[in-house]
Amino acid sequence: MGDEKEIEILKKIIDSLKDFKISLVGKNYEYILVNKGYTEAFGFPEDEIVGKKVYEIMGEDVFEKIIKPNLERAFHGEVVNYTEWFNFPKKGKRYCDVFYYPLRDEKGEISSIIVVSHDITDIREKEEKYRRFFENVPVGFYLSTPEGKIIDCNEQLVKILGYPNKETLLKTNARELYIDPQDRKLWMEKMEKDGYLSGYEVALRKFDGTPVFVRESSRVLRDSEGKIVRFEGVIEDISEVVKGRDRIDKKLSHIALLNRITKDIIEHVEMEKMFDSIFEHLFKNIPLEFSILFLYEEENDRVKILKKFPEFPLYEDAFKVLETMDLKKTMFKKCIEGKLVHKENFIEDDFPFHKRLGEMGFSSGVNIPLIVENKLFGILTLLSKKYFSEDDLELFKDLGEHVSLALSHAKIYKDLEKSYMELRDSQALRLHEERLKILGQIASGIAHDINNLLSPILGYTELLLQRQNLDKKQRDYLHIIKTSAEQISFTVSRLKEFYKKEAEEEVIVDIEKVFDEVIELTRPKWKDIPQRRGIVINIKKEVSPETPNFLGVKSHLRDSLMNLVLNSVDALPNGGEIVLRGRVSDGKLILEVSDNGIGMDEDTKARCLEPFFTSKEEGTGLGLSIVNEIVKRYNGKIEIESSVGKGTTVRLILPLKETKGKVEKEEVPEELTSLRILVVDDDEMVREFIKEFLESEGQKVELAEDGISAKRILNSFYERGEFFDIIITDLGMPKMDGISLAKFVKSISPSTPVILLTGWSIVMEKGEEEYVDMRISKPIEIERFKEAIRKVFKLKREGK
Questions:
Q1: Residue 711 is inside which H or E element, if any?
Q2: Chain centre to alpha carbon of residue 410
Q3: CATH code of the domain occupying 676-797
Q4: Which single residue of 52, 226, 579, 637 has CA 20 to 30 Å from 172?
């Protein structure tokens, strides 16, 4: 029974290996013996396993698919190794490393197979966890040899270096990744000397040949003899950091340059020396080839060469031609509007002068407007045979502002010097101070003054038109005056609309009524004025029955459509037709203004929404840009269809909102009772006009020229137990402004309504609204003024 003794010895050996599941399987796939690790894994005692077929314990499906094929290989003399998931009753699903070793008898024939299974589930999970970390961290990992062979890397490194896949990168020697071989040499020296490297910044070559800036931290792996066998490291893409750092350095350099220029030029009052200093600094720090200073002559809309650097006759002769050209046809066009102009690739330009610059080798040019006292003083042109960067352009823009300021100071200094000499000679210093004071007041409030001046013009004209004893000629004259005043007011309001966003109330607007108002308000432009020249323009409206009301600010729609109608009138120099259309499509309100006028070419159509762009000789360039601003507020868009000679259609597409705003409704005007009203305005003409109008309506009026005077009147009346029904006050006044006066009124009589007049476009500060019951913009229109008085008095009676 030698075999039994051998089996017994073998049993003792395999039982001692508790961490392994070991079994001995015969040719008929029966268990001959198993160890304790095996019985514990299956939860059966040894006598219930030994003698049974393998498939009875492992299951027929697992046996046929996995175990049997591998046993057959082992019975043919092969040592088999594989890893597989197995399901054990006691331990559940486990990942095992399995070996099949053939055992031979004394004849050398294979009699049985030793099956050794090792549970490596924990090891696999750790490896998987490491692999997931290795692949998913936002930095690149690598393992390489001292010779540069990349043994392994993660996908992030593949992404950083821009390789199509991991396999391609693993075929690349690490030495080839360095743009500068010296960087690799320095890296190797540091690694061999120190055994590690931390925060090493270097430029590597991406797959497409472009550089990528990285920060690398690496360490050396050595064998038992201390020999370097591996390098492992982490690579982080810092390209954006480097770019940002470079840009900051460049900005700091530009700021330092700008400070040096500013310091030098403020020391020079003479323009010649000022620009000598500017040119010297610029040519030392910016890759410039030629610069030239032009003086702008407003009276004939031309430029004149004032200074150039360096002296180069060929370049100067090329620019001489600009002195005879219309600026609107040159690269200086935008400079007149105060905008910096940057031009590249002159050689590709169709404009002959630009093409000539390209032929002379210039690649990039910039024109810097120099603005003094809000007017174009001159243009500084800088040319280079290289391309300017965005940072360079920002420097030039800042430079223009600094030089403009220095020129302003120099001009002020010169003006003051000249004035001082004149005043010293004439002993008229006091008169000079008064003039400067007046000039300052005019300059600071021109928009306010225009509206103040328009108030009596428009107001008295409306009062006169109410008279019945006017003949036709007198009435026509008054209508012309009224129309002109309204046009001035409309122009000012268009400018205000462009740069001020006033808070206005949304109401439910009837589109057809807005069309009617627009047609009436623009009647002088499309009917009266053209008819005097024998020109006929017809205007009509087409509103589909399905057109809904619109929730929005009525003045936004009205002003936008008025702008479009006025543009159409300008496009009909020989007469024609204008059509206003309203409809709904796909949940959007469509408003159109069409004409059959001269139309626009593609260039004009592409730029017509730009602020200040105009193709008209006397246009402001604000009309369509204002309309565009308004449409954007409603998340809408503008579509323009136009071709030369075939007319234009401008389409406003506005998303419809749920109409929960206040419904605009006409109310029967309520006749006012005799009210006592205090009018406060520092403009005498405005005060007198308001007084005359209110007294013509049967009201009792007291006047005050400023807030302090108004306080005295109010105190005097309240001490006698008398009260005012309404206070009407201007906003901007000396000593005490309108808001301060309104606060005072509400402090002594909270129920007294306050109407605020203003020639400015303002949005009141938080908390100020509670002191003002109504706000009216100048110039004052009689009907709007009367309606405001009715509303605030009605609210007072209702206790609101």
A1: helix 707-719
A2: 37
A3: 3.40.50.2300
A4: 226
